[in-house]
Amino acid sequence: MDLKNKTILITGSTDGVGRVVARRLGAAGARVLLHGRDAARGKATVAEIEAAGGKAEFLAADLASLAEVRRLAGAVRARTDRLDILINNAGIGTSGQNARRQVSVDGYELRFAVNYLAGFLLTSELLSLLKASAPARILNVASAGQQAIDFDDVMLTKGYSGVRAYCQSKLAQILFTIDLAEQLKGSGVTVNALHPASYMDTTMVRQAGVTPWSSVETGADAILNLAASPTLEGRSGLYLDGLRESRADAQAYDAGARQKLRELSLDLGGPASPESKKQESKKQESKEHNS
Questions:
Q1: Residues of the chain with pLDDT under 50
Q2: 242: buried, middle or exposed (CB in 10 Å: 19+, 13-18, 0-12)?
Q3: Fewer Cβ in 10 A, N or C end of the chain?
Q4: Half-sphere exposure of 121 (CA within 13 A, CB side)
Q5: Which residues, in sequence order, are bridge partners of residue 88?
């Protein structure tokens, strides 16, 4: 895929592998919509991309709040009438053996909320924009670290560990990927997930007390391959380990589990924001007027 003048949103793109991917996308001629929580880091990343001749804009949001996720989606819709690629990259790691159970602004287990539910909601809020820009791609940056979702205790109120929470949230991303791929058949929008690389040299990995043994450049290669490789054009519902197609945990291929997660996510995420409803209403009126 020629990335020149494509509009791409990548969450968690002011640090780690997201920042490397953002810089490469900018260098390839894409218009990059950066996301992060830290305005100073966002400004610095925009400056790096622009200094190299690229185009970038920073949008701040805390994905631990669903209201902030909706606000981020509204900011994207206000700034562009097309979105060619959405990369759900932002996430929280295991934080090592001493990780304590935390909850989001909305009261949900924090890793499930940030790593999975925020991406689910953001994608849902931006689907109409992606469909209007087809062919378009959605990427979910997951992990090889996966654990089956316990639907009797999704928020992990019993037997909590940071590793368990992280692995459950990452598998949830893959269930969502496969489920959404089925829904989007024939729309021109593909959705795939990947494990970019193991224990990359990132803040997340170092905070977990792990010695990094992969580079962020290796992870960026895998993400960019999924974002732009012509060999993946039209292919959807895949899980890749690096550059190779792979198989996720068995629960990802359980249609009943995917339906449970979808219903739970719609319940937790609540109704669409007033902004998105208004946008959809305007588009429908325009279609009826032009038909």
A1: 273-280, 282-284, 287-288, 291
A2: middle
A3: C
A4: 30
A5: 140
Give the containing element (helix H, strand E) for 225.
Answer: helix 216-228
For residue 212, cis peptide bond before it (omega within 30 degrees of 0)? no
Query: Residue 58's beta-bridge partner residues?
Result: 34
Task: Indicate the domain borders of the chain.
Answer: 7-282
pLDDT tens digit sequence for 199-224:
555 666 556 666 656 678 899 999 99
What's the CA gap between 173 and 186, in Å, rounded?
22
Apex CA 196: angle with CA 258 and CA 190, to 5°?
50
Assigned superfamily of 7-282:
NAD(P)-binding Rossmann-like Domain (3.40.50.720)
Find residue 141's DSSP bridge partners: 194
φ/ψ of 245, rounded to 5, equals -65, 140
- Active-site residue numbers? 166
**What phi and psi, each to the nearest 5 degrees, are found at residue 191?**
-140, 125
pLDDT score for 97: 60
Residue entry with tokens 């429908």: 284
Nearest one of 197, 177, 174 to 189, comparing CA atoms = 177
